[in-house]
Amino acid sequence: MRKVIVKSQLANAYALVKKLEEVGFEFEPAVWQHERVYLPHNFRPRMNFPRLVMRTEVQETDQPAQYSLYLKRHIEDSGIDYVNFTAVGDYTETTGIVHQLGFKKVTEVSRQRRMIRLDAQTMIYLDTIEGIETPFVKIEAELIDGMSVEATRKELFKSLKLFGQETFLVQTYAEILVGNQMQPYYLPE
What is the mean pLDDT of the chain? Predict the structure, then answer.
């Protein structure tokens, strides 16, 4: 699956929720997600290397956790993220396979996530990340054949601007947590 992803740090999450409710959208109940992020042993920044992520997700406290493995590759020059998910039945065995493939764990990310599906291709997430004081809004749009990356990105920027956001971030939550400074990008006019 090919995605365009933009996110922004929120000064006021309540204001975002209120704006979305005013136009008829309501966030689903929060889910808890914990991710272990793995990089290949020869990882180099800006080289389009894949990341493997083991996700544990709890949707309801009286239900068992669900596990998934996903591969994510950000293609720098195109701005597209390739993402492939698969359900995992045995967490321990899967992490063993990941290690044997030469991937090493670099960090862990825990978050509470609420989401809204805007349409068949577009999701809005409200993420509260453990270890980062302020929450984030993240918009992901799945690219369908023939869709322009730039046109899609501009639409996502317009959405952020409607929510009162003027800047967005390109770093992953994992990168922010391991010490990369957040580098805001300003929305194009």
Answer: 87
Nearest to 109 by CA among 38, 28, 3: 38
Element (H, E) at 28: none
> For residues 136 and 47, what is the distance between their CA atoms, to the nearest angstrom?
26
Rounded CA separation 55/7 (Å): 20
DSSP state of 42: T
b/e 90-128 (16+ beta carbons within 10 angstroms → b): eeeebbeebeeeebeeebebebebbbbeeeeebbbbbbb
> Pairing mode, if any, of strands 2-9 and 80-88?
antiparallel
Mention every residue, 6+ apart, whose C-beta is less than 8 A from residue 155: 141
Count Cβ atoms within 10 A of the Cβ of residue 47 and give its class: 0-12 exposed, 13-18 middle, 19 or more buried: exposed
pLDDT at 5 over 50: yes
pLDDT of residue 160: 84
d(CA 27, CA 40): 35
